[in-house]
Design a protein that fits this description.
Elements: H1 3-12, H2 14-30, E1 39-49, H3 55-75, H4 79-89, H5 95-99, E2 102-105, E3 112-119, H6 122-142, E4 154-160, H7 173-198, H8 205-209, E5 216-221, H9 227-230, H10 239-254, E6 261-267, H11 274-286, E7 292-296, H12 304-308, H13 316-320, H14 326-329, E8 330-332, E9 338-341, H15 350-354, H16 357-369, E10 372-376, H17 385-390, E11 395-401, H18 406-418, E12 423-431, H19 444-447, H20 465-469
Helix pairs in contact: 2-7, 4-6, 10-11
């Protein structure tokens, strides 16, 4: 993925990103709720060697003291120092718990130790810091090696006693909220990018290109799945209807020789919108004043008759079973030149019927009577009916919804290739477009007359002579 792809992803998923940011902000703010204010007091002690003879001895003493300074810093948080502090101040705590409230640091190349103490009480924080400084001096003297003279001992003296702090150092609500917001933003971006990288579903034309070189003949955006149920007709308007007209144009462009075109519409799995696509493609073809036949060849779960409001009992299965003729199963639909063959009763052997000689004869007969034959067939992966049909017609259209995994599409295309069928192209169904495409249509006031018939367009009348002279 390129940078622009990531930006488009963030733009498309902005609501989820905003939700993650708000969640992080809420969690960050919640961490400070109910916490009492915390105060910090700091005292500074100075370490020196009692020996004071020559300048060289003072320099050696300073070096010696700096070598021990880190040991004294660690000594501050030990029970040797903290236990007497607890007893002196009467604190209701333990040395280990008090060690979490006390920190000691030493600036580089100095013999100073900064002792910081925190507490929910500003007075207690100052008392702890000063008491630790005093007790450190006592502990250093008590831990001096035996036999050490007083002149060779290190003394600890408080040079900056702790004062009662005025302002609290915590909880830092704004910082916690900012950290939570940043964490939510980073987590949201990481989740969306990782999800996109791990998502193997075919959502756009780029996903189709990763599976096949077949062209994308149509893109039906989400919301057009129930267009057939609403009744697509010549005067339908809207972006969904226009998508099917664009699909019709692309399919017609593939028929360069102008021969009769028979198309099988199928999908990888159930529920991807193949029946809706077949119906609306047939209706869009009929709008161009050509003879169209729509055949429901899904003899397992037929739905064309139900959607179009036709008689479902007699149809393709009846014809292939030898119990009816072609003219007896044809049902006209709408005002266009469109006939429909329903599926009829569900037979026990649909695959054998679709691959029979009678099916081949039916396809040959329909080529003589119709300009376009659109066949709705079962999905490719569960059964082989669609592959059997696709091998007998001019080509197949594979409908792919936004939830279809790439491996399913690849297996479906492989099934068509093994059957020596021609894959005309792919129809992307239920696509969520990141960029809204404006729709351009005729105004209802100009598109038809009052009686509902299409208006005959004419050139505008010339202006009157007196008007032009005025």
């Amino acid at each position: 993925m390129e940078l622009t792809d990531y930006l488009l992803l963030l733009r498309r998923r902005w609501a989820l990103l905003l939700l993650c940011c708000l969640a992080g902000l809420g969690v960050g703010a919640a961490t400070t709720v109910g916490k009492p204010p915390t105060y910090q007091a700091e005292a500074t002690v100075f370490l020196t060697l009692n020996r004071s003879a020559s300048v060289s001895e003072l320099a050696q003493g300073s070096t010696y003291t700096q070598g021990l300074i880190q040991s004294y810093v660690l000594l501050v948080s030990t029970p040797e120092v903290l236990t007497p502090v607890i007893e002196r101040l009467g604190l209701p705590t333990t040395p280990r718990a008090l060690a979490r409230q006390v920190t000691a640091t030493s600036p580089v190349d100095t013999v100073l130790i900064d002792i910081a103490a925190t507490s929910t009480s500003p007075e207690t924080a100052a008392q702890i810091a000063n008491a630790v400084g005093d007790q450190l001096a006592t502990s250093v003297a008590d831990l001096a090696p035996a036999g050490t003279t007083q002149g060779d001992q290190i003394s600890v003296r408080t040079v900056s006693p702790a004062t009662v702090p005025v302002a609290a150092i915590g909880p830092r609500k704004k910082l916690a909220a900012a950290v939570g917001l940043a964490a939510g933003l980073a987590g949201g971006v990481a989740f969306m990018v990782l999800r996109e990288l791990l998502d193997t579903r075919v959502r756009d034309e780029e996903g189709v290109a990763q599976v096949t070189e077949a062209p994308v003949l149509g893109v039906i955006r989400q919301g057009g799945a129930d267009l057939a149920a609403r009744g697509a007709h010549a005067h339908s308007s809207g972006p969904e209807a226009e998508s099917y007209r664009r699909l019709r144009s692309n399919v017609q462009f593939l028929d360069l020789e102008g021969a009769t075109q028979s198309v099988v519409v199928t999908s990888s799995t159930q529920g991807e919108g193949k029946t809706t696509t077949a119906i609306n493609l047939a209706v869009a073809m009929a709008d161009t004043d050509v003879r169209v036949l729509l055949v429901d060849a899904d003899l397992r779960q037929p739905t064309v008759a139900q959607v179009l409001g036709l008689e479902p009992g007699v149809g393709l299965a009846t014809l292939l079973g030898g119990r009816a003729s072609l003219d007896e199963v044809l049902q006209p639909w709408g005002t266009q030149r469109m006939d429909v063959i329903a599926a009829g009763e569900i037979p026990p052997n649909p695959n054998e019927l679709l691959g029979s000689r009678r099916m081949a004869d039916l396809l040959a007969a329909t080529r003589e009577r119709y300009d376009v034959v659109v066949i709705d067939s079962p999905p490719l992966l569960p059964v082989s009916d669609a592959a059997v049909l696709a091998a007998q017609v001019d080509g197949a259209l594979l409908v792919v919804s936004g939830r279809t995994p790439r491996k399913h599409v690849a297996h479906s295309i492989q099934s068509l290739h093994l059957a020596r069928a021609r894959l005309m192209g792919v129809v992307l169904n239920r696509v969520r477009s990141a960029v809204s495409v404006p729709h351009y249509e005729l105004s209802p006031a100009r598109s038809s007359r009052r009686d509902g018939r299409p208006r005959r367009w004419a050139l505008p009348r010339p202006l009157r002579k007196e008007s032009s002279e005025a």
